[in-house]
Amino acid sequence: MSSPTPKNGVSADHGEVGKAVSEEPSKPRSRKKKAASRIPVKSPGFHLEAAHIKACGAPNATIRIAGVDEAGRGPLAGPVVAAAVVLKNSDPLADLPLLNDSKKLSSDQRETLAVMIRHHARGIGVGVASPDEIDHLNIRQATLLAMTRAIEALPDTPDYALIDGRDLPPHLPCPAEAVIKGDGESASIAAASIIAKTTRDEWMKRLNQEYPGYGWERNSGYPTKEHRQALETLGPTPVHRRSFGPVRKVIEGCS
């Protein structure tokens, strides 16, 4: 069985990253969920998109603003995944009333919102940097590469991009700005954080079937006690990040 982990930006779900992502609209999940998934979450006061549109002085509907975020900088295994999302300019919260930073949502809430985002968004792009690229470039540069690929994967080049974090990826196809804690300031960044997180979590569940024993269906490759113990017992897999300290320590101990 071949690994579903992407190499050189190739996504097992979305084809070659850098090309347009085409996704069939999905029906929202049944409301029969765990009680925790029905706990209301108040959305932040998103304002960045509206402020930029006002500053541009252009017709509201003509501007395409992409929010970009990533998931998977800290794990010991698997790719880093970035997403770029272009939402409707006119009140995106009307379609996504519980939109929030993915880290502030339950797993069920993220999955439900991911379906809704894919249904309502004007465009979605996913970009990936593989474990080999992470080891070769370092995690910071690999994350920026994944973000660039996510923007390039949008069906249409955006007019502007809002990038979560302190750094701007180089060689972007559009003007952009970095926004610290942007998932609390920008609706499109918050949406991108949900798409990136749910996409990566699903990847890790599939990788867990190929490399069982590390608990990736629960820990998504993060350095939990379960994962670190399995790393010591079973050794690293081809999708572990060999440049990360705990993995490198195991490799050096076996040499």
Please, could you describe this protein's structure?
By secondary structure, this protein is α/β, with parallel strands linked by helices. Helix content is 36%, strand content 13%. The chain has eight helices and seven strands; from the N terminus they run E-E-H-E-E-H-E-H-H-E-E-H-H-H-H. The strands form two sheets. A five-stranded mixed beta sheet has the order 5-4-3-6-7. A two-stranded antiparallel sheet has the order 1-2.
- Average pLDDT over all residues: 84
Q: Counting H and I runs of at least 4 residues, what is the number of helices?
A: 8
Unreliable stretches (pLDDT < 50, length at least 5) are: 1-42
Helix content: 25-40%
Quaternary class: single chain
What spatial order of strands do you see in the largest sheet?
A: 5-4-3-6-7
Report the structural category: alpha/beta
Question: How much beta, percentage-wise?
Answer: 5-15%
For the sheet with most strands, the description reads: 5 strands, mixed
| Spatial gap, N to C terminus | 28 Å
Shape: elongated
Extended strand count: 7
Rg over CA atoms:
18 Å
**What is the chain-wise order of helices and strands?**
EEHEEHEHHEEHHHH
Fill in the keyword field for this structure.
255 residues; alpha/beta; 5-stranded mixed beta sheet; 8 helices
In a nutshell, what does this entry contain?
36% of the residues lie in helices and 13% in strands.
Question: Topology of this protein?
Answer:
Elements: E1 10-11, E2 15-16, H1 48-56, E3 65-71, E4 80-86, H2 107-120, E5 123-129, H3 131-137, H4 139-152, E6 160-164, E7 176-179, H5 187-210, H6 216-219, H7 225-234, H8 245-254
Parallel strand pairs: 3-6, 6-7
Antiparallel strand pairs: 1-2, 3-4, 4-5
